[in-house]
From TrEMBL:
It holds the Pfam family Malectin_like. One of its GO terms (molecular function) is ATP binding. GO terms for cellular component: membrane. Its main location: membrane. It is found in: Membrane. InterPro entries: ANXUR1/2-like (IPR045272), Malectin-like_Carb-bd_dom (IPR024788). It is a single-pass type I membrane protein. This is Malectin-like domain-containing protein. It comes from the Eukaryota.
Length: 315
């Protein structure tokens, strides 16, 4: 049944004014035109009404047999919560299944299924033994992203800010075939960055027991000439890229974006340390290192789950 919010937060988008509530197992079925990678977004907004308080919910969500959420109750924060997935679908249908725990109920505010560009996720990534963050820049809202994503500023993630400077670029970002596209990262991600003078780390929270796809976005908007910038990239203290040369990667074009994908095991500390710093090839009076954006995406585990250790058969 449908439930309307008793009190609305100022500026709250209309999709969060109401929710669909389920006491019995239920599912949504979406037709997709082509198999491949799709973006699935689940929207939740816990609110209270005279009939029901959505904070009392507790439920599981499966998507085409993959465990997306377990024992979920809409999130702890006040206001809407959006959970985004990048999923490969071989079938022409996407089934989103919601099942409430005994004596509880499930709810959802909205569901989006979007075909992803073919270059959004490649088949290869370097192994190293979304939150999405724009490094050095402001928040990027869905209005400024062709895939309606939100990119958060790095203030809550970037540690040891000594030894870094923000830089902003007002010129044209030069996208190239084979590099990053606007769907991979919008202009507002690549036209800001941190210039690193010493090793610094961006540290989002992660969950032990999962692997994560870490995508690092780069765009040399700071060098005055080609061939001046060289730096190393470390993840959890391990050297991922040595003497990375943005000029060579971009076929010797400044302000041309690219990205690298790394697969990382979450450690018991619950963090992933992403660090960029000078290399032995760094030149005097040149920028030591640059970083424009970071995405961290949890990968499903061996039980086909993105949340906890509960296999799909037990949901």
């Amino acid at each position: 049944f449908s439930l309307c919010a008793g009190t609305l937060l100022p500026g709250l988008p209309p999709i969060y004014h109401a929710a669909r509530v389920f006491k019995a197992p239920s599912k949504y079925v979406f037709d997709v035109k082509d198999p491949g990678t799709h973006i699935l977004r689940l929207h939740f907004h816990r609110f209270s009404s005279p009939q029901l308080n959505l904070a009392d919910s507790k439920f599981h969500v499966l998507v085409n047999g993959l465990v997306a959420l377990t024992n979920f109750s809409g999130g702890r924060s006040v206001g809407p919560k959006v959970i985004e997935y990048l999923l490969w679908f071989n079938s022409e249908k996407v089934e989103t299944f919601l099942r409430a725990e005994k004596s509880k109920f499930a709810f959802v505010s909205a569901i989006e299924v979007i075909s992803a560009p073919k270059d959004l996720i490649l088949e290869t990534a370097q192994s190293v033994n979304g939150d999405k963050g724009t490094i050095g820049g402001p928040k990027v809202t869905p209005f400024n992203d062709s895939l309606w994503r939100t990119w958060l500023p790095d203030d809550d993630y970037f540690k040891s800010k000594e030894g870094s400077n923000r830089v902003y670029f007002s010129g044209r970002i030069k996208y190239q075939e084979g590099g990053a596209s606007r769907e991979v990262g919008p202009d507002n991600v690549y036209n800001s960055a941190r210039l690193i003078e010493s090793k610094n780390a961006s540290i989002p929270n992660v969950i032990e027991g999962y692997q994560y796809l870490v995508r690092l976005h780069f765009c040399d908007i700071a060098s005055t000439s080609l061939g001046l910038l060289f730096f190393n990239v470390y993840v959890n203290g391990h050297l991922a890229y040595k003497d990375l040369d943005p000029s060579a990667v971009t076929n010797y074009l400044l302000a041309s974006p690219f990205y690298v994908d790394l697969v990382v095991d979450a450690e018991h500390s619950g963090i992933v340390n992403v660090t960029v710093g000078p290399s032995n090839k760094s030149m005097a009076d040149a920028v030591d290192a640059i970083l424009n954006g970071v995405e961290i995406m949890k990968m499903s585990n061996g039980m086909g789950s993105l949340d906890g250790t509960l296999p799909a058969e037990s949901v």
